[in-house]
């Protein structure tokens, strides 16, 4: 700074030690093992009260943000002055206004030209028609070979038949898709509408989940923004297939368990203040955990690939309860084992009942031949002396599930776009949902040859940054005992690792949309580390904010660059080739 009275030199006056805060001292590692780990980055947690460790304060909201908030110095420097009541209201509700704003942005992206391409693309040929049959018959039926052409014709017709069809996925996702068809008709917009709604809501949920996990509205909004511009999530949000529905229920269950975690730990903190500690069995009514179990049942009722998430979240909830008890001063023992057993019993039982309820349409269909669901009359045709006491519908449903299991584990037919899960994080082999090569004068083509494609491809820079984010989470979990990193890794593993058990099965990259939100949370956690701690120096904060901002902007640019091949726009063939960064994408 310019100080003419002092020769142009900034002079620092000696500060009064009494008014200068001392730097926060890091706790000395207590054990020899901890001291050895400190050489590779381990830092023991700061000493705080058990109540503060159990439930860290939220960043803003009613009951947290003061009724009157001081004006923002940043806005003042920009010359923006808001009325004090409005500014205080915005600060108090920022935890909702920010995520809702991000969700609106995601919704605009997903609903713009949702009806294009005007065709049954990829597996829509199964699920859109199965959904229509469910809403009209209560079970999936067979369709004629010319059904697709009749449905998408200028004067559409729906050739619904009543003879049952063998389908290999439970009905929840198709009931949801069918709701859009019921509201808007058997059209591309109709069968994609509800999936786009769930895709938009999942962005809102992730923003709120990120805010709760990281105790930062900013980082929550960053997580929602990154999910809104992920190409795989975007394409699946605009296509009526089941995997986006699986992802939605998984994310909802995870978020509800997070809320349950905070609620139960707050209850334990109250008991600590009352001097009761953690030496008690029940943590009270857990409505959010039961709601999470319902979501897990609906997830499995959409696709069986959701079943491993039940085990993963049961274990996660049990570990969270056990950790809370340790913070309350209780040693490991029967009560910790009780937490795991009760978590498994309550979540597992509610999820199982929910899953069974999703088959109500099939169960209530007629057991007469040709008038009910597939194999609905199997028990009547196959009487049993041993299992005759079991209701016919239950025996038939069990046999149907056996047939579904056999199909799923023996599916090895080669497919052009199949891929191995080892390549998923690298985006080794995306799936083309729709492709056309219009010539000059066709479909808006103005060059010799053009391309129209809907490619199920994650935003490359986001996914490749996600690999670094996962490594960072692994470090935080192993070296810093960070529960947030452990939760992210647990949920991602539940959606990803089971696919490695099916090396010979025909599987596709778009199955990975189930764990995309947790990949985004890993990137967001890494961005939070880039921004630095609250007590970091201004230079450190500036460097971190610059790096984090550049990463987010680069990911958004990358999404916009690939936007034409996410939405089936007609582009010159040379532009299409320029977007094929890897040979395996063609």
Structural summary, described in words:
Its main location: membrane. It comes from Kitasatospora phosalacinea. Its EC number is 2.4.1.-. By secondary structure, the protein is mostly helical. It has helices spanning 32-38, 50-54, 73-77, 84-92, 94-111, 124-137, 147-151, 172-184, 188-214, 217-228, 231-237, 243-273, 287-300, 307-327, 334-357, 360-364, 378-381, 392-410, 460-480, 483-496, 516-531, 538-566, 573-578; strands at residues 431-436, 450-456, 570-572. It has a 3-stranded antiparallel β-sheet. The longest helix has 31 residues, at 243-273. The protein starts with 31 loop residues before the first helix and ends in an 8-residue tail after the last helix. The model is unreliable at 1-26 (pLDDT under 50).
């Amino acid at each position: 700074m310019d100080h003419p009275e002092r020769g142009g030199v900034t002079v620092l006056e000696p500060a009064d030690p009494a008014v200068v805060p001392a730097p926060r001292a890091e706790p000395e590692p207590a054990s020899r093992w901890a001291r050895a780990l400190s050489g590779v980055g381990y830092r023991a947690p700061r000493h705080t009260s058990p109540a503060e460790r159990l439930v860290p304060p939220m960043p803003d909201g009613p009951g947290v943000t003061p009724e009157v908030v001081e004006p923002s110095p940043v806005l003042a420097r920009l010359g923006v002055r808001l009325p004090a009541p409005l500014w205080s209201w915005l600060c108090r509700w920022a935890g909702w206004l920010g995520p809702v704003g991000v969700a609106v942005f995601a919704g605009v992206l997903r609903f713009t030209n949702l009806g294009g391409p005007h065709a049954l693309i990829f597996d829509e040929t199964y699920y859109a028609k199965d959904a229509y049959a469910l809403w009209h018959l209560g079970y999936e039926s067979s369709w004629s070979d010319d059904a697709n052409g009749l449905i998408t014709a200028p004067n559409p017709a729906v050739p619904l038949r009543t003879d049952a069809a063998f389908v290999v996925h439970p009905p929840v996702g198709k009931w949801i898709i069918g709701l859009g068809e019921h509201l808007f008709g058997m059209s591309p917009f109709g069968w994609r509408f509800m999936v786009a709604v769930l895709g938009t809501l999942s962005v809102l949920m992730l923003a709120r989940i990120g805010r709760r996990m990281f105790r930062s509205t900013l980082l929550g909004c960053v997580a929602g923004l990154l999910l809104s511009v992920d190409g795989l999530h975007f394409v699946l949000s605009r296509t009526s297939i089941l995997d986006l529905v699986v992802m939605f229920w998984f994310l909802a269950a995870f978020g509800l368990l997070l809320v349950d975690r905070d609620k139960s730990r707050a209850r334990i903190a109250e008991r600590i203040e009352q001097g009761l500690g953690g030496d008690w069995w029940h943590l009270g009514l857990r409505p959010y955990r039961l709601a999470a179990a319902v979501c897990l049942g609906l997830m499995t009722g959409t696709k069986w690939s959701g079943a491993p998430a039940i085990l993963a979240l049961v274990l996660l909830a049990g570990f969270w309860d056990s950790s809370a008890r340790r913070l309350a001063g209780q040693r490991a023992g029967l009560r910790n084992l009780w937490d795991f057993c009760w978590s498994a019993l309550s979540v597992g039982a509610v999820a199982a009942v929910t899953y069974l309820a999703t088959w109500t349409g099939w169960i209530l269909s007629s057991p007469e031949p040709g008038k009910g669901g597939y194999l609905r009359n199997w028990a009547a045709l196959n009487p049993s002396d041993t299992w005759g006491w079991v209701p016919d519908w239950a025996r038939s449903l069990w046999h149907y599930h056996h047939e579904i299991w056999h199909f799923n584990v023996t599916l090895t037919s080669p497919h052009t776009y199949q891929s191995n899960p080892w390549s998923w994080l690298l985006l080794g082999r995306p799936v083309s949902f729709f492709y056309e090569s219009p010539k000059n004068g066709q479909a808006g083509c103005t060059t010799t040859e053009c391309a129209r494609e809907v490619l199920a491809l994650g935003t490359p820079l986001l996914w490749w940054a996600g690999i670094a984010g996962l490594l960072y989470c692994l470090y935080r979990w192993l070296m810093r005992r960070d529960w947030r990193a452990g939760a992210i890794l647990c949920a991602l593993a539940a959606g990803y690792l089971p696919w490695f058990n099916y090396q010979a099965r025909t599987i596709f990259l778009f199955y990975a949309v189930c764990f995309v939100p947790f990949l985004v949370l890993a990137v967001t956690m890494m961005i939070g580390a880039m921004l630095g701690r609250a007590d970091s120096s201004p230079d450190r904060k500036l460097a971190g904010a610059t790096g984090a901002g550049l990463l987010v902007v680069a990911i958004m640019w990358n999404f916009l660059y690939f936007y034409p091949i996410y939405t089936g726009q007609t582009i010159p063939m040379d532009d299409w080739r320029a977007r094929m960064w890897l040979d395996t994408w063609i």
